[in-house]
Amino acid sequence: MMNILVATDAWDPQVNGVVRTLKSLAKTVRKFDATITFLTPDGFPSVSLPTYPGLRCALPMPSEIAHRIETARPDAIHIATEGPIGTVVRHYCVKRKLPFTTSFMTRFPEYIAARLPIPEAWSYAALRYFHAAARVTMVSTPSLMADLAGRGFKNLGMWTRGVDTDLFRPERAIDLGLPRPIFLTVGRVAVEKNLAAFLSLDLPGSKVVIGTGPQESELRRRFPEAKFLGALRDERLAAHMAAADVLVFPSRTDTFGVVQLEALACGVPVAAYPVTGPRDVIANNPVGVLNEDLRVACLQALNVSREACRAFALTRSWDASAKQFIAHLRGIAATRPRGVQAA
Predict the structure, then answer these.
(1) Under DSSP, is residue 144 helix (H, G, I), strand (E, B) or coil?
(2) Staple partner for 271: which of 11, 58, 261, 298, CB 3.0–4.6 Å?
(3) Hey, which residues does 58 pair with through a beta bridge?
C-alpha cells in the first residue's frame, strides 16, 4: 500500500474546487492500492487575510510540520497549494533532498492582481520558482499546461478532474419554486469569480447563486432580484444543481472548474466564456455553449440536450483522475523520512 502525504493550505471549512478535488481523490486512490494522509491547517494558529475577507491563513511551525511528516512516514509527498503550509513542506523536502510533486490548482497571480497593484508577472515568477523544485507539477487541462509552459514552467504533467456521478445526478432535482428558466452559478462569491458579469445580464426567469464570500453583501445590494442561497454541500448541493436549467460559469481565472462536471452529471448544460477551464471541459462537445457574449451563451444553452450532458459526465470518472495522480507519484516515491531532525 502506497502512503501519500498531501500538503494543502485549502481545507475545511472552505468550500471550493481544491478541497472537493482532494477529498474525492482520497476516496478514489484506495481502489489502486494507495492511501492519502493530509497535512492541513488544522491545529495551527491562523490570521485573517485582508485581501481575502472571510479566509484565514495558517501559520505553520516548521518543527510541527516536520513532526507531522515524520509521523505520517509517507512513501511520497505531494504539495497541493503554494501557501504557508506548502512553502514549509517544500523547504523540508528540499533541505533533505526528498523528491516531491506539486500541483497548480489556482491562478493566484490573477486573483492578487484583481485586489492589489501587483503585476501578474511578479507573481508568476514567484510561482515558477516554487514549482521548479518539484519532479512533476500537475495541471488539470491541456490549455493550462500550454499557458504555463509559455511562462517558463518545467516538468509539467497532466492530472485531470472527475465527478461523482452517483451524488450528482438528474433524479435529485427539487422544485425551487422559482420562475423558469433557472440560471445557476456555484462557487466562492469573490471578485475573481466575475459573478457581476452574470448577474448583470438581461435574462428571462431566475438567477440563483450558491456560495458565500467577501463580495456577497455587495452583490446582494446591487442585484436584489437574484436569489442567494449561501453555501450548500453534498446532497443539498446536488439537488439544487439538478433543479437548474443552465449552469453559468462566468469565471475567467479558474484552472478547471469542477462545478462544470458536477452540473453536467446532473444533466445541466454549461454557459461560459471560452477561456481555460470551460474551453477544456466543454470544448466542442454538445454539452454547453462558450461565447464571449455570456448572455448569448446562456440563452443558447437552454437548447442543449440534458441527456447528452449526463452521458458526457459519465465518461469523466474520478478513477481516471486518481490513476494519473498515482502514476506521477509512483515514479518519484520518496524515502520515508525517519528520525530526521526537525527543520
Answers:
(1) helix
(2) 298
(3) 46
Instruction: List 288's β-bridge partners, or say none.
Output: 270
When pLDDT is cut at 50, 70 and 90, the band that residue 110 belongs to is confident
Q: What is the DSSP letter of 29?
A: G
| Extents of the domains making up the chain | 2-162+319-330, 170-315
| Bond preceding residue 179 cis, omega within 30 of 0 | no
131-182: pLDDT as tens digits: 999 999 999 989 899 999 999 999 999 999 999 999 999 999 999 999 999 9
Given a cut of 80, whether residue 237 has pLDDT beyond it is yes
Tell me the three state secondary structure of residue 271.
strand
pLDDT tens for residues 174-211? 999 999 999 999 999 999 899 999 999 999 999 999 99
Q: Is 303 exposed, middle or buried, given 0-12, 13-18 or 19+ CB atoms closer than 10 A?
A: exposed
Which residue shows C-alpha cell 526528498? Answer: 98
Can you tell me which residue has the cell 448569448?
296
Q: Taking the model in full, what pTM does it have?
A: 0.80
**Grid cell at residue 215:** 463580495
Q: CA-based angle 49:51:54, to the nearest 5?
A: 55
Angstrom distance (rounded) from CA 46 to CA 268: 38
Consecutive H or E run containing 182: strand 182-186
Contact (Cβ atoms closer than 8 angstroms) between residue 334 and residue 98: yes
CA–CA dist 249, 281 (Å, integer) = 12
Q: How far apart are CA 255 and CA 139, in angstroms?
A: 8
CATH of domain 170-315: 3.40.50.2000
- Max distance between CA atoms of the chain, in angstroms, equals 64
Q: Same CATH topology for 2-162+319-330 and 170-315? A: yes
* C-alpha cell, 3: 502512503
Neighbour-count burial of 213, counting CB atoms closer than 10 A to its CB (0-12 exposed, 13-18 middle, 19+ buried)? buried
Domain 2-162+319-330 sits in CATH at 3.40.50.2000
Burial class (CB in 10 A: 0-12, 13-18, 19+), 221: exposed
